[in-house]
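Reminder: ligand-aware prediction takes two inputs, not one.
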Amino acid sequence: SESDDRLSAFLESGIHRFDEANAFFIDPVRVLNRCYTRFRVSPSAYYSRFFPSLNFSTENQNNVTKNSGKRKRREKEKKNSQALNLREQMADRRHQEVRVALLKAHEALIGASQLLETLRNLRDDGEERGGSSIVRENELDFVELGSVWQAPFYEIVLKVDEDEAAVENAGGESYCQKVVPLFENHVANEGRNDIEADLLDRKYILPKNSCFYMSDLRQIHNLIPAESDCGFNLILIDPPWENSSAHQKLKYRTLPNRYFLSLPVKQLTHTAGALVALWVTNREKLRNFVENELFPKWGVKYATTFYWLKVKADGSLISELDLFHHRPYECLLLGFSHGKEMNSEQLLRLNHIPDNQVFISVPGDYSRKPPIGEFLLDYVPGFKPARCIELFSREMIAGWTSWGNEPLHFQDSKYFLST
Ligand code: SAM
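Here is what comes back for the chain with S-adenosylmethionine:
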């Protein structure tokens, strides 16, 4: 039947389009796995939260419910004690504008019974590895490593395919080692297959046709191409915005907004222009900053917003839709940065982006965004294949350059299964 076909298409691609809503359900594990031939992203390592499990982050689950109980009480108290202030009214208006689109998307998911059934099993990877060991296993702290005086001497060993044609015959056995500096260096896997890389005593997996540059923000100017026709057509940015979450403070350091004003978005833009996609939190103050200061400073003309709606394994929203300080969705603001060839108005007209597209997924690790880069490719100016860069990245994607102070984070082999 048609719905069987759609289900098997989803199981292949990790993407399900809902016809009745302007929305998609995505399984990031399946989407990411299209970057790999030799390794597979481990579903149980990806879905470290929001799946009920005996041995996997039960602590986490408890925390979520405990906090949200407290939160709800606090919100109720607040509602009773005062009316919404002006900024809260603005935020509420924004929320009301997208609410219907989000509800429609969620209804579509709840109505897709076959898809919902597979959702429960997204975390199964056949070889259950007891999640807690994944979480507690030592990973390298790249921020720490990059800050010591020895940082310039750290090297990463890439196991590059010697001769790709020969490898296919030999069953992936023959490779040569390429030793290159780890920090402040463009490290690329230009091959057609994912490769392994050794660093200190750990193993990393680099997807095919991918590149990273690991440095602090202070060295970001090294990404600026000498010629603007070597610039980028798609610039995805997920900044370490300041917020009050104590949990976040344990995960990575944040930066005050003024640091982002100096990101060289203009200088990274290709002659043909670039689509700029910026993840923002739901704080109204931040939205105002982006609209009134950041985009104008970068020379980015706002186009529209996409939404990431977060659900649990049973398809329910991770929090109530109307909860003021804990929305179950995040926003991706889209705009155009003009190159030499066209102004932003022309770019806007030529690359029309539909409003209010919704992407639904079960969240992975804290602050990890779903891989929706390919959905953006349709609206990117310039020739194909588009040149793509992700700023403040924690992972590598085929066809992309990843920059940040820990772009290898999710490439640790503990997040993978070997096939
Ligand atoms: N998009 C990522 C994902 O899906 O996993 C999450 C990015 S997270 C919001 C922000 C990242 O910025 C963190 O990896 C953090 O370490 C990094 N970061 C913080 N301060 C930085 C700095 N001064 N220079 C470079 N990167 C920095």
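The mean pLDDT is 88. Residues 143, 216-217, 238, 240, 252-253, 255, 367-369, 392-394, 404-406 surround S-adenosylmethionine (CB under 6 Å). We will return to this case in the review session.
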